[in-house]
Amino acid sequence: MRQSSLKVALAGLALLASHALEAATLRGQLRCNNGDAPAVGIAVTVNGVRGRTTPFFTGGDGMYYITDVPAGQYVLEIWLSKRGNDPTSTQQIIIKEPITDVPPQVVPVCSAQ
User: Fold this and answer.
1) Do the domain assignments include residue 11?
2) Does residue 46 lie within any of the structural domains?
3) Does 63 fall in a domain?
4) Please, are residues 63 and 27 in contact by the beta-carbon 8 Å criterion?
5) CA distances from 112 to 31, 57, 108 (A)
6) How far is CA 64 from CA 7, 38, 45, in A?
């Protein structure tokens, strides 16, 4: 009986491990300060234990998609200026689903400067 329970437990762990999240997509939208228009061409990065990603830029609809992000805790960074070493705004995020949505954010400009 003990061996049988152990085999069932090990099979369950193997099944969980096979479905572990390897990489996810983080998506969100940036809107202009009036909230109506999309903020186009804004750089967005995530910073975590592996360092900062290369910048991803918002498209014509203000959406950004950051792909191949392993599950974990990160800081989402928004860069309104192409100059400088510090992001304009940051937000803590936790990625634990294959697609993680970030609520729309309003930025004080409508395009990268």
Assistant:
1) no
2) yes
3) yes
4) yes
5) 12, 9, 11
6) 45, 11, 10
pLDDT band at 27, cuts 50/70/90? very high
CATH code: domain of residue 79: 2.60.40.10
| CA atoms of 102 and 104, how far apart (whole Å) | 6
Q: Is 63 helix (H, G, I), strand (E, B) or coil?
A: strand
The pTM for the full model equals 0.74
- Flag whether 90 is in a domain: yes
In angstroms, the Cα distances linking 53 to 6, 32, 41, 76 are 42, 24, 17, 10
Number of domains in the chain: 1
Position 111 scores a pLDDT of: 55
Residue 88 token pair: 């304009």
Task: Round to whole Å and give the CA distance between 72 and 80.
Answer: 25
For the segment 37-52, what is each residue's pLDDT rounded down to a tens digit?
A: 999 999 999 999 788 9
Q: Which domain holds residue 88?
A: 21-106
Give phi and psi for 10, each to the nearest 5.
-65, -40
Q: DSSP secondary-structure letter at 2?
A: H
